[in-house]
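The records we work with from here on pair a chain with its fold. Each token is a code from a learned vocabulary of local backbone shapes. A record is reproduced here so that you can trace the correspondence yourselves:

_____
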Amino acid sequence: MMSVSVWSALVGTVAALCTTLAFYPQLVKVRKQGGDDLSVAMLGMYLGGQALWLIYGLLNHAGAVIGANLASIALVAAVAVMKYRHARRRPEQRLRIAIDMDEVMADALGEHVRRYNAAFSASLTPDELRGRHLEEYVPPAHRAAAEALLDASFFADLDPMPGCQDVVRELCGRHDVFIVTAAMDVPCSFDAKYHWLQRHFPFIPPSRIVYCGDKSIVDADYLIDDRVRHFSRFKGRPLLFSAPHNAHEKGYTRVGSWAEVQQLFGT
């Protein structure tokens, strides 16, 4: 009959083999499929624990502990290196980026202020609207007329926002870009907005132009918009494009220009 010391040595050896070889199947899997599902923190903590056990074995002259942990460290380190190499070789992830039109791609506010000033002999500037929409600024007697300025022709000749065309073109080369406009706010704008996009952004196919009312229906990783109401039920990451009316909005990642959008996405 084996003594307790023999049983102890046998159990210890089997346990060391199990823990040492536990990462071998993971090593094979990572080599074939990559290691996206492996936590970097877990690998780091496991390596740290094995290193401490190795030090323990060295301090106590425990050959089995030293051997088992050296082998474990080698296996886990190999898994970590393969995970890193697979991540480096993996093609860049294509994001789905939804972009609003008015006050993001097109200078709608500038045209609205110009028409308002011409209609009422006013001298309003966009900077005076800081924290307010135009309809909140104009006298009550002028509000209906100011809203009527948003006819079909309004959207036909808007100026593109500075830098927008170049940055959106770059984004389209690397990601899936959709133009998402709440055109139901001004239903007569459908045709004019479509032709405006065709003229200034001919590289965006019609299948990537979305007219909607509630933008929560859009399935995208990012939504670049100037109105926070469109973010309330959006499931992706909102990016607030700076405009005078949203100057006081807090709690959102803000991009102040298309140069900042370019920097954010690394184009």
Remarks:
- The longest helix spans residues 63-89.
- The first strand starts at residue 96 and ends at 99.
- Residues 4-89 form a domain with the Monooxygenase fold (CATH 1.20.1280.290).
- DSSP finds ten helices and six strands in the chain.
